[in-house]
Amino acid sequence: MEALQFRFSPLRYAFAKAVGAVYPGVFASRAGCLAYGDVPEPALPGPEWVKIETRLGGICGSDLNLITLRDSPSVSPFASFPFVIGHENVGVVRETGPAVTEVEPGQRVVVDPLLPCAVRGFGQPCANCRAGLPNRCLRFAEGALAPGLLLGSCRDTGGSWGEVFVAHRSQVIPVPDHVSDENAVLAEPFGCALHAVDVAGPPHGRTVLVIGGGVIGLCTIAALRIMAPGCRIIALVRHPFQADMARRLGADEVLAPRGRDVYPTVAAALGAKLLRPVLGPPVLVGGADVVYECAGSDGALNDALRFAAPGGQVVLLGLASVPRGIDWTFVWLKELQVQGVFAAGPVRTGEGTVSAVQRAIELFAEGAVDLSALVTHRFAFKDYRQALATVTAKGSSGCLKAVFVAPAGAAARAGAGAEAAAVPGPDPGPGPGEGAPAPARGEAAAAGAPRG
Questions:
Q1: Are 413 and 405 in contact (CB under 8 A)?
Q2: With contact defined as beta carbons under 8 Å apart, do 5 and 30 qualify?
Q3: pTM, entire model
Q4: Which of 117, 170, 233, 418 is the most exposed place for a label (fewest CB within 10 A)?
Q5: d(Cα 368, Cα 345) in Å, to the nearest integer?
Q6: Chain segment 187-207, per-residue pLDDT in tens
Q7: 419 Cβ neighbours under 8 A, 6+ residues apart
């Protein structure tokens, strides 16, 4: 099958790591660890497994960190090489094991990418899985499956950057017919945001600062507007197209300052004072009750600690690995609570605790939010170099979310296009899953109208 793999070797890793700082193109070349080509399809590991044909595979910031070797080596024990990349997914069931009754061939599904005890064949789950916290599983490197935290990091499962992957029955979530592929492929990143808001506690009536206007930042805005509709959301972004989407998803204020204007602009929005130290950036007195760091850069993490109010929370979604130049003084000086977030863990609802990916699909199905307009760019697997260049040059490309369209997805789009062409009548304009996101909950119906 056609796929993109991560193939680790000490020589490739050392060479690409050394050269990549000067020539980033090395990471997508034969000298790097990324490889495109034909690989064997993964086999069903057992009777409780499902084989899925990929329709869309999302390109996540964590995938870019992997390819550009910015991940910490500390996570390497929780991966098995070589593996097909890709954990954001939507596909169609091709084959089911004899013990699978939940789905059938031809059914459209997404897969919760976590690979905890249930997936690994343990009859007795670990303490964290028993507690309903599979994202904190103690056995990601054990059991009947090769090591891997997620789909797209395990050599036995494949990933969504390939034509076919496999999943355990416990991971597979049916997608309702009226939920678009574009929304479905965003169930995992949206689930990460839902889990982040849940694990930190919905900030009802508080002031929240979201740092980062990429997909995780925008999903966090959408999650906050659903889970804590009365909070005040301030978004700090880099590009005008990110600012526009942040407003459409429910941000109360959007800031896009550059350079020396960042601190005065943020301080003014938060009603904080600025003091000048003898050296270094200004110091805020005051700040946001909760800061969601969604960019993953050293600078964003440093700013998050500075922009939080005394006694506030800093929630880390940005996957910073080995940051440099962070002034940790503010953690003790302000008595901050720093909350890490990993993957789309559980989310509490009125009916109990569910997978955040499952909850994301439910919210899409209910019409509570439409994130499909975040998918701005589509690529075939063979065009991976162009895809990676587009994603890493957001300012010029205007990219929010890029996805790989697998052959099954391309065939589905071609079929849908032919069906639409056969129906006469005027263009009805953007419909669900195709155009702008639906107004966020509580947002005025008139375009651009202020929220009350």
A1: yes
A2: no
A3: 0.91
A4: 418
A5: 20
A6: 999 999 999 999 999 999 999
A7: none
